[in-house]
């Protein structure tokens, strides 16, 4: 889920990826539960990982298969233009930091390799291109 607020800031989590041994900013994301729609999963995962509940219209942003030759992972990315803080994240282990990052800073964070995950890159570049 890409959540952008009225100050043109995007909700990101600073997380450690153990396999790569790296830290970077990512959008909240996760898996679907049985019987759950992709949109419902995006809202739930965002709240669990950040403590912010996406509100208002939740609309599809993009669909991607990050590595179709290696795995069957399908990523349904949604966008919300509002969120309200509902408490601490349920999955506090998911990140070291949660912050609203100005969209104007995204390109610099990509250049510094502070945003490297493919799905996050694609989603944020899609949002920037649509501004």
Question: Outline of this structure?
Answer:
The chain is α+β, with helices and mostly antiparallel strands and 131 residues long.
Structure commentary:
With 131 residues, the protein is α+β, with helices and mostly antiparallel strands. 27% of the residues are buried. The longest helix is centred in the middle third of the chain and has 13 residues.
Attribute tags:
3-stranded antiparallel sheet; 8 strands; 3-stranded mixed sheet; 131 residues; alpha+beta; Nucleoside Triphosphate Pyrophosphohydrolase; 3 helices
Distance between the termini: 17 Å
CATH architecture descriptor text: Alpha-Beta Complex
At the first level of CATH, the class is: Alpha Beta
Helix content: 10-25%
Task: Chart the SSEs and their pairings.
Layout: E1 2-3, E2 9-17, E3 22-26, H1 38-50, E4 52-54, E5 58-64, E6 75-80, E7 83-85, E8 97-102, H2 106-111, H3 118-129
